[in-house]
User: Which sequence fits this backbone?
């Protein structure tokens, strides 16, 4: 079964850090671009970042550039999002998604990051 | 960056109605557009890719049209399971962007 499982969310103070993880199974992880997408409470979807199959290209939405880093470990079938200098407005459910070049066809269940003092 | 604008933001409809949602891009994205359905507390589900191609397993009452900057998602006969929020997303650029969403609610 094709599956993505996120973990690592939690409560952190403004200025703090979190590292999200996404474990992939049931498909050849190293053959796909991967993305992180977030959804603030009661709001719409926001694409955050993506990474090429071999990790050689990475792209970010402007609001997280310089603070978030996307990475992957193909040997471990895992995707990561290192989030530093967190702000209250980064509070959201974070989804990892498999990008097959024609939309995002596989999504995880999401992990919640809450930034609050 | 490419901006995506959906209309309407909310749509009230009844079972059996034909429903159309519009998505406009701030610049041409050819046919690099996807549509997703999301229900409360759940991850989005891919419905349509490349503007008009139906994802495997998605009912044929869903259809997509358009190219360039204007796109539509149509549900030919709204079913009880279709009350949800729908998002368009462009993937013409590596910096992918979503529309703000259209909530389809019961009239």
Assistant:
């Amino acid at each position: 079964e094709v599956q993505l499982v996120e973990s690592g969310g939690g409560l952190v103070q403004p200025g703090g850090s979190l590292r999200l993880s996404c474990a992939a199974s049931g498909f050849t992880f190293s053959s796909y671009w991967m993305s992180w997408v977030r959804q603030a409470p009661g709001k719409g979807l926001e694409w955050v970042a993506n990474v090429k199959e071999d990790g050689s290209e990475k792209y970010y939405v402007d609001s997280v550039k310089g603070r978030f880093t996307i990475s992957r470990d193909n040997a471990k079938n895992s995707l990561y999002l290192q989030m530093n200098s967190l702000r209250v407005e980064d509070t959201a459910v974070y989804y990892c998604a498999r990008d097959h070049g024609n939309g995002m066809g596989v999504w995880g269940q999401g992990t919640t990051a809450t930034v609050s003092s | 960056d490419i901006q995506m604008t959906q209309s309407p933001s909310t749509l009230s409809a009844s079972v059996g109605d034909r429903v159309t949602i519009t998505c406009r891009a701030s610049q041409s994205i050819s046919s690099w557009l996807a549509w997703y359905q999301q229900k409360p507390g759940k991850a989005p589900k891919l419905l349509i890719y490349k503007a008009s191609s139906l994802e495997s397993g998605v009912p044929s009452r869903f259809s997509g049209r358009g190219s360039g900057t204007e796109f539509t998602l149509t549900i030919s006969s709204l079913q009880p399971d279709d009350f949800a929020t729908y998002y368009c997303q462009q993937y013409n650029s590596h910096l992918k962007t979503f529309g703000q969403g259209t909530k389809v609610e019961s009239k």
In short: Chain B touches chain A through 25 residues (CB under 8 Å). The radius of gyration of chain B is 13 Å. DSSP finds no helices and eleven strands in chain B.
